[in-house]
Specification:
Radius of gyration: 21 Å
Shape: globular
Distance between the termini: 67 Å
Largest sheet: 7 strands, mixed
Order of helices and strands: HHEHHEHEHEHEHEEEHHHEHEEH
Mean pLDDT: 96
Number of strands: 11
Oligomer: single chain
Strand order of the largest sheet: 2-8-7-6-5-3-4
Bound molecules: pyridoxal-5'-phosphate
Structural class: alpha/beta
Low-confidence stretches: none
Length: about 375
């Protein structure tokens, strides 16, 4: 007789040993908990301005072809991206968003037991993949609410890191480093350490924060997405820029039909609509200024940001948690980092002017009580 599988087939030792985490609590989960719809969805740094009308039209048209598998080489989009960046198509790989590409890099370049460095409290999906592939993580605290590049490089050398993760501009602080700082950082990493430069928010950043594209440099993989400025988070599409050898390495293991046909069409059209993108970037900049003024008026400092969100500094973790709870109670979806010293911050995505006005009203209502209660 076959042994009973009533108690389930065991997962691999690696997977069985992982904590049962859900890395992101979604606004949909909050709605299920409260039984009420979210009034302000400002927690995931999605674009409140949505995709370009051209991208929408292209995606609607592509639905007619949804019976087909998409081109597994993502060729048309890769060729357009290559033209856009002035590089060869062999330098571009398309994936289901940066989150997917992060997993690919970890799988391709980090053996089980090897170490990767990141900042303590940085964008967590990288950590999730490192754990999932049996790697070890070395976390370096933020300094002055920015990634501490010197300490990251020092840690990478000390532990012999094979991968380093850096988001520039950064999530959750919104901070950024200059191209010169980044070049020095790459030089300070061990020679066999690959830098994953996550540029999810690059479109919102000042020019000084964008290093020149050197796709011949084998030490760096640049990761970009259509989820933020292009307003297509739900389509799940992003890309990596790297050497042809790195791109070929991804080809050995990537999910070849993973990127869907509608997303390919939307991304291609969005890339061609520079005017719309410029409008979004300007609208986001105006929204950031609004938040800075709002924070100043209420006595809540805000961090300088080069992103489509702003971090409000509640001063201390208890007050940040109380503010988050008060906002969630009012059906406002925002997030806060869990790791010190960033756990004084509440991160708010730039909304439309109407959403910002509603957010200001709610914040003005809840803040005096939150500030008073946490102090007392
Ligand atoms: C730094 C950073 N990287 C990557 C992502 C996710 O990008 P994608 O939607 O392309 O997976 C986010 C989304 O919030 C992010 O903040």
């Amino acid at each position: 007789m076959l042994p009973s599988t009533r108690h389930g087939v065991p997962a691999t030792r690696l997977v069985a040993g992982l904590p049962a985490t859900i890395p992101f609590v979604a606004p949909e989960a909050l709605e299920r908990q409260s039984g009420r719809p979210i009034a302000l969805r400002l927690g995931a740094n999605e674009s409140v301005f949505g995709p370009s009308p051209r991208a929408k039209a292209a995606m609607n048209a592509a639905v007619e072809r949804i019976a087909w598998y998409a081109d597994p080489e993502n060729y048309e989009l890769r060729a357009a991206l290559a033209r856009h960046h002035g590089v060869g198509v062999e330098h571009v790989s398309v994936g289901c968003g940066i989150d997917d590409l992060l997993g690919l890099v970890v799988r391709a370049y980090l053996d089980a037991g090897e170490t990767a460095v990141t900042s303590l409290g940085a964008y967590p999906t990288f950590n999730y993949h490192v754990a999932g592939y049996g790697g070890r993580l070395e976390r370096v605290p933020y300094r002055d609410d920015r990634n501490d590049l010197e300490a990251l490089a020092e840690a990478a050398r000390r532990v012999g890191a094979r991968l380093a993760f850096l988001a520039n501009p950064d999530n959750p602080t919104g901070s950024w480093h200059t191209a010169a700082d980044l070049a020095a950082f790459v030089d300070a990493l061990p020679v066999d350490c690959l830098l994953l430069l996550d540029e999810a928010y690059v479109e919102f950043a000042p020019a000084e924060a964008v290093p020149p594209l050197d796709v011949a440099d084998p030490r760096v993989v640049r990761l970009r997405t259509f989820s933020k400025a292009h307003g297509m988070a739900g389509a799940r599409i992003g890309y990596a820029l790297a050497t042809p050898e790195t791109i070929q390495t991804f080809d050995k293991i990537r999910l070849h039909f993973g990127v869907n046909l509608v997303a390919q069409a939307g991304a291609l059209a969005s890339l061609g609509d520079a005017a719309y993108l410029a409008g979004v970037i300007a609208a986001v900049a105006a929204g950031r200024e609004d938040y800075t003024r709002l924070g100043a008026a209420l006595g809540i400092p805000t961090l300088p940001a080069a992103t489509n969100f702003v971090a409000f500094d509640a001063g201390e973790p208890a007050r940040a948690r109380a503010l988050l709870a008060a906002l969630v109670e009012r059906d406002v979806f925002v997030r806060m980092p869990g790791a010190p010293p960033l756990d004084r911050l509440v991160r708010v995505t730039v909304g439309t002017p109407e959403q910002r006005a509603l957010f200001a009203t709610i914040l003005e209502e809840v803040w005096p009580e939150v500030a008073g209660r946490a102090e007392g």
